[in-house]
Specification:
alpha+beta; 3 domains; about 25% strand; HET; 13 helices; five-stranded mixed barrel; Heterokaryon incompatibility protein; globular
Amino acid sequence: MTLKLESTNIEELRKEIPVEKISQTFRDAFTTTRQLGFRYIWADSLCIMQDHQFQEGLQDWLTESARMGENYKHAALTIAPTPKVDKVDVFFSNRDTPQRIPLAVNIKRKAPTHMNLISCGKTEVDVSGQYYCFSKDIWLSQVDRAPLNHRGWVYQERLLSPRTVHFAADVFWECRQRIASEMLPTGFPYLEEDGLPVNTKCWRGKTYGPSKFLGKYGKWMEFVEKFSYCHLTMDRDKLPAIAGVAAVFESPNDQYLAGLWRGGLASQLIWRRSEKRWTNYEPPLNYRAPSWSWASVNGPIEFLADTFYIDRRSRYTAAIIDCNVDLLVVNNPLGQVTGAQLCLRADLAHISPHRIAQNPEWMLTLDDNKEYMRVVTYYLCVFTAHVSWCNDLFLLVLEPTGAKSEEFRRIGVLMIRLGNNIPAEGFKVFPDCTITII
């Protein structure tokens, strides 16, 4: 059994960490740290109490997990065992050394211009010189697609770390300026053609499509979409695992609301389960976030405001009146929540779900796998989008909680591709309603 910090052994581990009791992964990590000339190493399972079932361990985790983003952000270096096989976290392994050397090819002739080369008006171009052959997908296959980099906590750590060394079949490294490997120590030129390496594109990369209208919130939505594909062992970690990245986006004039931002909130409310791949969207066992937050569901999601091309004629038809979030830890607004209430004003309509099934232009996506065959379901019009080929309406699908009057729970999202107005047939519209969504 791998040694880990717990409330029962903290005094013992303060004196020493017995090398014979730690895993080979940690032994390799300690060796790497010393060989690189560093005196200190931080590892969550040895620096944060892991027995969360006890009050002392839980309190330590709540405190220290809130600081994890800062740990990686200010680290001199992050080292990552990045094998192709999940649950095999090793730094060092036997390797075929010749395969680490790229194939050198010497060319001593001119090439005709039809060979996809920049000719500058010439019929031939001199391509003589030495070239190196390697798989253009080597970074993608050995680093980006490695099981380690599909873990939720690791995704944040990789984004925040100024420098990371990946121990895979090759040794790879990335920083704010370059992605390289022992095979290509000067860098992967094709990975830098569109700007900066993967770990900085989230904040400083090029912006396309709707992101240029959504600003920093568009970048936040990009980050959340990618994070939603990652795996988390513990359901409760959905918000803590991105708290460090949220701190980067945080500003004095904004408010963080269970995975969304008060500024640009209306656009962030329009999300749905991703249809790019099948996933079991069973609801989490315990409360994690309000129903209007993407963090309330399991599996990949996408923001519709950032999926469809939206221009400046688009408008939000819902007005945000107030939003309150109940925090698990009062002084940690970026962490876990125990409840939340969103109050807004907009047109409210209700319709039988059978009416939607009769119209192919109405695209309904429910938030989980349950079959909602209610007699009446409510729809709140949030956003009218103008795209190049038509106008769309985006509506939140709600159901009454039954606990309070005008209190609802989100159960999905509906997109109507029919024009600016909801068709009167089959709808009963209540204009300018003030409601609360929990």
